């Protein structure tokens, strides 16, 4: 019983959970250890990386098409929410954030971006917080850019504008009148 493989065409943008948005550049047939395999050849421009994924494993590794407009809207709404600051040790939070980013789930990535964003008038982030924030923000921006057919810096600016507007609202709540 072979699972129905996901179908992607050459030129399609896809999301690979651990690497983000890539493009199918080729469908290949290769013989590996005496077995004939069909492979998707994915290109990740930002990382200058090429990845080969067996077509029958695409679903099990979590490879998917770009999110729907509805899912992207939900992720953008998540950015507008109040940041949740957990009081657990940083190492544990960092692991949770990394797991959310690598899940490939847009809403989870948006939560990480929201929770780690710092407005200009807020305390500085540690180096590792900044790294995780930038990784999550970049992952979200690349999918937004591919969906809206804009470049990544424009998508990132759109995300940051939403975060700044939300921070302005939530920072006012903290200031005693």
UniProtKB/TrEMBL annotation:
Pfam families: CarD_C (PF21095), CarD_TRCF_RID (PF02559). It comes from the Bacteria. Residues 7-117 form the CarD-like/TRCF RNAP-interacting domain. Gene3D superfamilies: 2.40.10.170, CarD-like, C-terminal domain. PANTHER family: RNA POLYMERASE-BINDING TRANSCRIPTION FACTOR CARD, TRANSCRIPTION FACTOR YDEB-RELATED. This is CarD family transcriptional regulator. The lineage of its organism: Bacteria, Pseudomonadati, Pseudomonadota, Alphaproteobacteria, Sphingomonadales.
């Amino acid at each position: 019983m072979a699972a129905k493989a996901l179908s992607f065409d050459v030129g399609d943008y896809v999301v690979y959970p651990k690497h983000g948005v890539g493009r199918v550049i080729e469908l290949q047939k290769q013989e590996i250890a005496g077995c004939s395999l069909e492979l998707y050849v994915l290109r990740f421009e930002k990382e200058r990386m090429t990845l080969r994924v067996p077509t029958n494993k695409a679903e099990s590794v979590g490879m998917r098409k770009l999110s729907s407009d509805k899912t992207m809207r939900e992720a953008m709404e998540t950015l507008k929410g109040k940041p949740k600051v957990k009081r657990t040790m940083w190492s544990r939070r960092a692991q949770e954030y990394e797991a959310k980013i690598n899940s490939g789930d847009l809403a989870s990535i948006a939560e990480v971006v929201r929770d780690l964003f710092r407005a200009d008038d807020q305390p500085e982030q540690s180096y590792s917080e900044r790294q995780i924030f930038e990784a999550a923000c970049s992952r979200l921006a690349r999918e937004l850019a591919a969906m809206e057919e804009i470049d990544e810096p424009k998508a990132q600016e759109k995300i940051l504008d939403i975060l700044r507007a939300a921070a302005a609202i939530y920072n006012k709540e903290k200031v005693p009148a």
